[in-house]
Amino acid sequence: MGRLNRGHLIEAAVWLSIVAVFYAFSFEFNQPIEIYIFGATAWPRVVIFLLLIATIGNLYYQYKNGSSAQGGIVGSTEDADKAADFTESTTLIRMIAVLFTPFIFAWLLKPVGIYFSAPFFIAAIMWLFGERRWKAMLVMTFIIYAIFIGLFLVVLNAPLPQGNTSPFYDYSAWILKMNTQLQANW
Amino acid sequence: MLEKFLAGSAALFGDPFTIGIFVFGVIGGMLFGAIPGVSMLTLAAILLPFTAGLEPAQGVMLFAVIYCTGTYGGAITAILFNIPGAPENAPTAFDGYPMTQKGQSGKAVGAAVLCSAIGGVASALVMMAATEPLANWAIKNIGPPEIFALVFFGLAVASSVGARTIWKGWMSVLIGLLIATIGQDPVGGINRYNFGLTDLAAGIAFVPAILGFFAVSEIFVQAERTATGTYKAPKVSMTFPTLVELWLHKVAVIRSILVGFFCGILPGIGATLAAFMGYGEAVRWSKNKEEFGKGKLEGVISSETANNAATGAAMIPLLALGLPGGALTAMMVAVFQMHDLQPGPLVFYTSPDLIWVVFAAMFYANLSILIIGLVETKTILNLLKIPFPFLAPLILMLATIGAYISRGLVLDVIVMFLAGILGYLLRRTGFSIPGIVLGLILGKIGEQNFAQGMQMVHYDLGTYFSRPICTLLIIAGSLTLLTSIYRAFTPAKVQD
Predict the structure, then answer these.
(1) Which residues have CB under 8 Å from B337's CB, separation 6+?
(2) ipTM above 0.85, yes or no
(3) CA distances from B483 to A74, B156, B339 (A)
(4) pLDDT tens digits along B430-489
(5) Model-level pTM?
(6) Stretch A132-158: mean pLDDT
(7) In whole angstroms, what is the distance from residue A179 CA to residue B1 CA?
(8) Which of B290, B394, B405, B411 is most worth mutating to test chain A (most A CB atoms within 10 A of its CB)?
(9) Do A128 and B223 make contact, defined as CB atoms within 8 angstroms?
C-alpha cells in the first residue's frame, strides 16, 4: 500500500469513475462529421485518456509520497488534507448545511423569487457563519437587502427572478410597482 | 496619429453626456471588478440592452472603458479575499492573497494599481500607433495553428502552477478541458454530454462556473475555517510599495507588457492567458522560484501588468478583424451590431471618429486607474475590516445575481453553486482552481482552432510544423511539459 490511505483510494476511484462515465457517454455522440475526419468524439476522448494517465500518475505519486506537496510547485497556498478537522459531528453538520443552503435558495428562486427569499437566505448564511446576535443579524440583513434592491433594481433595472407562485409573485410585483413609482416621481 | 488622438479626446470631452458615460464606465468597471461576487461581465451584461439608446461611439467606448478598469478592479478581490474578480486576475491571487495574510495588502494593491496602469497605458499607446500594421501582420502570420499552439503552451504553463503536485496540476487543467466539452462540438454542432437537458446544449456558461469556482468555493473554505475554529481575519495594511521596490521589478514589467500584448493580439486568447503567461515567465526567469506563491511582489506585478497590457491589444483583432478576444469584447461586437455596424477592416474607413474616441477613452481610462485607484485603495482596504459572517451573504447574493443575469436562467445559479462545491472539494485535495478555469475557457478555443488548423493543412502535420510561430510555440509548450514530466518522475523534494 506504500503511503496510500483510504482518502487517496477514494479520490482515485472518483476520477476513474468520471473517466469511465465520460468515455461511455462519448458513444452517444460518436457520429462522423463530413468536413472533419476526427469527428466529435476525438477531442473529448483524448482529454479522457490524458485524465486517465494523470489519475494513475497521481495515485503512483501518492503511493510514494502520501499527501505531501511536491517541492518547486508555485502558487499552491492551500493546506490540503490538513485544513479541517471534522471529527465533531456538529462541525460536520454545520459544514453540510453551509454547502446545501445555497442550493435550497437556488431551487426556491423559480417558485418564490429572489425578492422574497433573499432576506431569509442572507440571515441563514450569517447564522451558519456563527453570528448569533439577532439585532446585528437583523440590521445587516436589512443593509444587504437594501444594497441589493438599490443597486440592481433601482439603479440598474436588472431583470431578476420574481417567482411564479402566489403570494410570492404578488410580493415581487409589489416591489417592482414601488420601483416604477419611485422612478416616475424622479 | 497625434492629430487623430486629439480629435478623439475632443470628441470624448466635448460633450457632457459622453463625459458622464466615460466616468460611469471608469467607476462602474472598478467597482464591479472590486466587489467580490460580481465582475465587469455582470455590469456589461446588465448594460448591454441600454447601449441601443446611445450613439455607437458612446456604446463601444463605455464597454472599452469597463474592460480596462474592470480588469484592474478584479485584482483587488483577488488580493484581499482570494476571489479573483475575473479569470484574468487568478494568477494575481497566487501571491497577492499570501501578501494580505502577511499584512502586506496595501503593498500588493498599490503594486496592482500602478502596474495595471502602466500595462494598460503602454498597450493603449501601441494600439493607437500600430493597430492597422499589427492587424495586417496578424492576418498574414496568425492562423488557427498558431492559436492552438498558444493554447497548448498556455495550458502547459497553467498545469505547472497552483496545484500541490504536477499530477494534480495536469488533472486540474484536464478537468477544465473536460467540462468545456459539454455542449455542442465547435465543428459539427453535435450535442455532447448534455444528458438530455436542452439548456446544457449551449454548454456550461463561463460566468456562473467562474463565480462558483472562485467566489463560492472561497466562501465555503472560509466557512470551514469558521466552523473548525481555524479562521484568521486578514490583516489590514496601508503601506504602499516604494518607488525603489517597483523600480527593482522593471524587467518583470517590460516582459509582462510584451507577453500581455502578444497574447492580447491573438483572437480568442485575451487577458486570461496573458496573466498566466506573464506569471509563468516571471517564475521561469526568477532566481528565487521557491518564493513565488508565498507572497512575492513580483508575482502580483507580472500578472497585473500582463492582463492590462492585453486589454489594448485585444481591441486590435476586434476592431481590425471583427474577432473578439473574450467575453467582454464579444459583447462589444453585439454593441456594434445593435447600431448596424460590423467591426472589421472597413470600420477604420466608415467610422474613424468612433475608433479614435474609443482609443482616447481607453488611454484615459488606464490613466484613471492610477489616479482613482490610488485614492480609492485606502477605502477598499477597509473592506477587510468587515467581519466575514456579514461579508459572506453579501458575496453570495451578488454572485447569485451575477450568475443569473447573463442568460436569465436559474440553471446557471445551480451550476454556480455546484461549481462552488466542486471547487471547495478540489481545493481541499490540492487541485488548482485557476488551472480548471483556464482549461474551461481555452478548451473550446483550443479544439476549434485545432480542427480548423488540421483542415487548413489537410491533416498533414509536416505542413502544420512548417509555420515558424506555431513551431516555436509548440516547442516552448513541449519543453514546459517535458520539464514537468521530468519533475513528476524525479524523486520529489516533498514539503509536509
Answers:
(1) none
(2) yes
(3) 14, 10, 50
(4) 898 888 888 888 888 889 889 999 998 888 888 888 888 889 889 988 988 888 888 777
(5) 0.82
(6) 89
(7) 48
(8) B394
(9) yes
